[in-house]
Write a structure and sequence with these properties.
Strand content: over 45%
Number of helices: 2
Helix content: under 10%
Distance between the termini: 36 Å
Number of domains: 1
Protein name: SdiA-regulated family protein
């Protein structure tokens, strides 16, 4: 058994590449209304880059161009309890992750689906509510050593929604749990699939995720770096190989999405006079 474990660890090291060259460059200064941008995504057949703010802000989403200019502002018919991430499907529908859960005691976790048709309108957009709870959470809140039920990252893939939790456990901040729920209206129990650990410090919190249009690459964002996973099988995105891209400049990076298979967009929050930008990062 020990020999098998050592073999597995060696294989993991060989399959993992750390890329220290930071290819991030600023393409736009975000408008003041998006100083706390926590979610970003694009939709099919549109050049608009959608963004949102997290808790404490209005229930609106904003469509920007590459220059950081807001071209569309849409009110959402739902409260912003703690919006944390955005995702979209192949039909152009947008999903808002209202699952921020710092204290691990929320019982109203929900993902809001905004139809592609509603995104074209100017009136308050109606939503479908995809409510869920975690299959392995028994107490609200749990004990400190089990505070793994915060969440800031998810994406849509093959008619399901995949969530990546954010650990609040000291010395285990880099651990994320992967869950799956159906991408349809109703009340669901999130199925635990797998886990991954980036590092142990708070700058390793997972803050956003996305999957490429062809379903062959998955990204996880932290303030310190981001990870690109490939060669995974089925829906366990952690069973493949990955590359780690380290940032030279650490900031409160909160959202990531694919622009295309070779490029990702990243945003960070404005804090202490720094950040509040839209970045572009070219992958190897």
């Amino acid at each position: 058994m020990k020999a098998q474990m050592n073999k597995f660890l060696l294989l993991a090291i060989l399959l993992t590449v750390s890329c220290n060259q930071d290819s991030t460059h600023v393409i736009a200064d975000l408008p003041k209304v998006l100083n706390e941008a926590s979610g970003i995504d694009t939709t099919t057949k549109s050049d608009v880059i959608w963004m949102l703010n997290d808790s404490g802000n209005s229930s609106k989403i904003y469509g920007l161009n590459r220059n950081g200019i807001i071209e569309k502002e849409l009110k959402i018919d739902a409260k912003n309890h703690d919006w944390e991430d955005l995702s979209s499907d192949n039909e152009g529908n947008l999903y808002i992750g209202d699952f921020g859960n710092n204290t691990n005691k929320r019982k109203n976790l929900v993902i809001l689906k905004v139809s592609a048709e509603a995104l074209k309108g100017s009136d308050k957009a109606a939503v479908e509510r995809i409510s869920f709870k975690y299959s392995n959470q028994e107490k609200f809140p749990p004990k400190k050593k089990k505070m793994h039920f915060d969440c800031e990252a998810f994406f849509h893939y093959n008619d399901s929604l995949y969530l990546f939790t954010k650990s609040r456990v000291k010395n285990d901040f880099g651990k994320t749990h992967l869950y799956k729920i159906p991408a349809k209206k109703g009340n669901h129990v999130a199925e635990l699939i797998s886990t991954f650990s980036s590092c142990n410090t708070s700058n390793c919190w997972v803050t956003s995720a996305d999957i490429s249009d062809d379903g062959k690459q998955m990204v996880l964002l932290t303030q310190k770096s981001f990870f690109v996973f490939i060669n995974f099988t089925s829906n366990d995105f952690f069973n493949g190989t990955f590359k780690q891209y380290d940032f030279k400049y650490e900031s409160q990076k909160e959202s990531i999405c694919f622009k295309d298979k070779n490029t990702v967009y990243i945003t960070d929050e404005k804090a202490h006079g720094d950040g509040g930008n839209l970045y572009e990062f070219k992958l190897d």
